[in-house]
Amino acid sequence: MNINHKIESSDDQVPEYVIRAHARSLKHYEQAPARFLAAWKRAVSMIGSPYFHCDGVDHYTNATNREQIRPNTEMIDRHIGVCSTSQGVFIGAVCSFYNGSWGLNLSRIHGYSALGDIAGRLDLLQNEILVELMLNHTGW
Questions:
Q1: How far is Cα 127 from Cα 82, in angstroms, rounded to an integer?
Q2: String of b and e for 13-47 (b: at least 16 CB within 10 Å)?
Q3: φ, ψ of residue 135 in degrees (nearest 5)
Q4: Domain limits, the chain
Q5: How does pLDDT run across 39-48, given as a tens digit for each residue?
Q6: Quick one: pLDDT at residue 112?
Q7: Could you point out which of 8, 34, 109, 114 has its C-alpha 20 to 30 Å from the C-alpha of 102?
Q8: Are 52 and 60 in contact (CB under 8 A)?
Q9: CA 95 to CA 85: how far, in whole Å?
Q10: Which residues contact 60 (CB under 8 A, 6 or more apart)?
């Protein structure tokens, strides 16, 4: 769907709330990639940079797009079982933005798979990061 299309109606008048909602959506999705990257970097900082590959940058903090910071799937798979429950659930939830089924399986290792269960297991900062990722995720 092209979000830049002109809003048209069968009537000559489009309700004001529709125009405002459309403008709000346009503004949000223009800013979403940068906001997602900022939240992704916060998640990497909490999880630990060794669990991520940095492609084309010397450190994840220097990344300019999410493609430069990808989960190190092999390392995460090897160590997920020794994480605390909340850390394992957080890693799984974060990694689900990269690969949904893999991330869900990581959370399931610690017994959590439903969004409400996951949110209830995490601390405030972890939940805030996940909310930012959800609000600004435009696909990997």
A1: 21
A2: eeeeeeeeeeeeeeeeeeeeeeebbebbbbbbeeb
A3: -65, -30
A4: 16-136
A5: 999 999 999 9
A6: 81
A7: 34
A8: yes
A9: 15
A10: 41, 44, 45, 49, 52, 54, 68, 69
